[in-house]
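Q: How would the structure tokens look for this protein?
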Amino acid sequence: MLLQAQAWSLRPLSLRSLLVRTVKIIVPFPGGGINDVLARILADNLAIKWSQPVVIENKTGAGGNIGAELAYQAEPDGYYGCARKCLESLSPCA
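A: Here is the predicted structure in token form.
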């Protein structure tokens, strides 16, 4: 599961020079849980790799549907991602 998240983190490396603003990862679960902790570890590593701030946004409720809906409605510009199911998948919203 983390391997899949790492693969996602490697994919946009060629576009790293195009990142000009904060990247946001939406976690549809409460802060302090395993999803939040793993997303923050990943965010720290991506921030170092991309030399760009990566912020975690916890959007809880409705069994993760509120956060997933927010990610679905996000502008498909590559600056949003959604971490769900213990980072089983980290989906870019593009």
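The longest strand covers residues 23-27.

Residues 35 and 86 are 5 Å apart (CA to CA).

Upvote if useful.
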